[in-house]
Write a structure and sequence with these properties.
185 residues, alpha+beta
């Protein structure tokens, strides 16, 4: 099919290099050690995405079906969402919230993190209940060791979900917080 205009002059521009460089994870040596395999996967995914975007060949899916223009658009969004999910892993942001037990009026501290849905929109997905506020806080703050263990827990959940969504055929289950986890045999 031929389109009726010059795509080089009349189209909105998606600059992959700018988008990637603006959001590129800046990992120090400790983080590189922690995220080594995930970072390598990220770099391979970015390379695959760049190769896909720069290809002028006919595009087919994993079942060798030719893709229509809308399928190609959706494939681009699929790559972008996968990359954004990995960015969430590299730049973890935890949000502290409180839940109150209706019967006892005890406040519980819950740490939450976001994920990205199939439309590219962030939503609250991961959570970890730390316990009653009066038992968790030391001098009004969450102890560093507790915070670090929550970070590790949430990062594991995020990677497990990413792995389940995109890489593995393993089975998934749920932990006591309702988060999806990979069940290893």
């Amino acid at each position: 099919m031929k389109i009726e205009y010059s795509i080089a002059q009349n189209s909105p521009k998606f600059n992959l290099q700018t988008w990637l460089s603006e959001n590129e994870p800046k990992l120090n040596a400790v983080q590189l050690k922690k995220f080594g395999n995930i970072h390598q996967h990220y770099l391979e995914l970015v390379d695959d995405f760049m190769e896909f975007l720069n290809s002028t060949d006919g595009v087919v899916d994993s079942d060798d079906r030719a893709l229509s223009a809308i399928d190609i658009y959706n494939a681009i969004e699929y790559f972008k969402i996968r990359i954004q999910k990995l960015w969430l892993l590299f730049n973890l942001k935890l949000y502290k919230t409180h839940n109150v037990n209706k019967d006892t009026q005890v406040r519980y501290i819950v740490m939450r993190a976001f994920w990205i849905d199939d439309n590219g929109k962030p939503f609250r997905k991961f959570s970890k209940n730390l316990g009653a506020e009066n038992k968790v806080l030391v001098k009004g703050k969450i102890p560093v060791s507790v915070f670090e263990s929550v970070e590790d827990y949430i990062l594991t959940l995020m990677w497990d979900l990413y792995y389940f969504e995109y890489i593995s055929d393993d089975e998934a289950g749920y932990d006591e917080e309702g988060n999806i986890i990979i069940i290893k045999d």
